[in-house]
Amino acid sequence: MTPHELVAVLEKHERWLKNRSGGNRANLTMTNLEGSNLAGVELTQGKLSGANMAHCDLSNANLSHADLFAAHLTKADLTGCNLYRADLRGAHMRGAKLKRAILKEADLRGGALLYGGNGANGSKGLDFVRSDLSGSDMDDAMMSNANLSGADLTDVSMNGADCEGALMAGATLMRSTMKNCNLARADLRGCNLSGVNLQGAILRDANLNGAVLAGANLRNADLQGAKMEGADLAGADTTGANMARSAENFSIQIQEALHNHYTWINTNGAMGSRADLSGADLSHIDLHGVNLSGANLRGVRLVGAKMRDSLLIMCDISAADLTDSDFSGAILDGATLRGTNLSGARFDGAGIGWVDIKGPDGRPTGRLWAANLTGSNFTGASCIRTNMRGANLAGCDFSSADLTGAILSDANIRDARFTGANLTGASLPPPPDPDD
């Protein structure tokens, strides 16, 4: 198409949009427009399916509601372009510039293309093509409620982009940069987010079930209410991230186990059943103030969990991972935490000491059952005013822990390490007799 022909198409399209005589909707289907300067053009509702617009300048153009099905926009400049509700299924947008572009409610899913004569015995058929936006610049783009399901977004830059409510299930976002991106309520099920930089991103109520976040940067990200069942967080940096998740965001089995345990507690064992959550991944769960006394939590993963003021009396939490969890004010008297990783955890004001065993009549027997923390790792933990009186702390590592005002009297601290620990105001038992 010659420049004069293109200008004529655009003029007729503008007249068509304004319902003037002589107007005609632009039909540039399969047209070769590679490298054309289309900055600021008005192509609302234009037909551009399969058009070759690679390297085109479409900055600040209006392509809202346009049909761009399987269009070629490789390395096109779409800065500030209005693509509201545009059909971009199967579009090729590798390396495109989409800074500040409007992609609200745009459809960027894969698309099926009809081919003829190339199939078996020259038959016709369909070829499914996924949308390719790899390496594109989408900083500050407006993409709320856009549909990018299954799209290739490898190595894209989406810093500050607004993707609230976007559908991105199955999309590939490997190594993408999405700092401060708004992904609230976004559907990211099964997404490959390996190595993605999501520092400061908003992922409130997002669906990340089955997503791969291995090696991702989630520093200071907001994941409040996010669904993360089966998500792979291996090697992810969650420093400062808000990842508290209510029990409703976990599997039905976990929800039922918690519900049955609450019933068991409230009916004194007449109904319900004791929770057995051994080996379960409850990372970042928010169980503030719950009563899980007597539960089996052996080998459980409670990384970053919010357990403030909870009751965990006589629980078995041995060989568990409680890294960076918050148990401030919790009561763990008589609990077993043998060989548990408590590094970076908070136990400020918590009680991890004796419990008075009661008889069948519910009366105290006078027999004390001490909490067992042998071999546990408290490296860098905060144990300010923690009451560990009478607890078995043999072989525990309190290196660099804050034990300000902690009560360790009558505790067994044989072979315990306190290198670099803050023991200001702490009440310690006498040093163990080396000959004992």
TrEMBL record:
Pfam families assigned: Pentapeptide (PF00805)
Domain of life of the organism encoding this protein: Bacteria
Protein name according to UniProt: Pentapeptide repeat-containing protein
Organism whose genome encodes this protein: Azospirillum brasilense
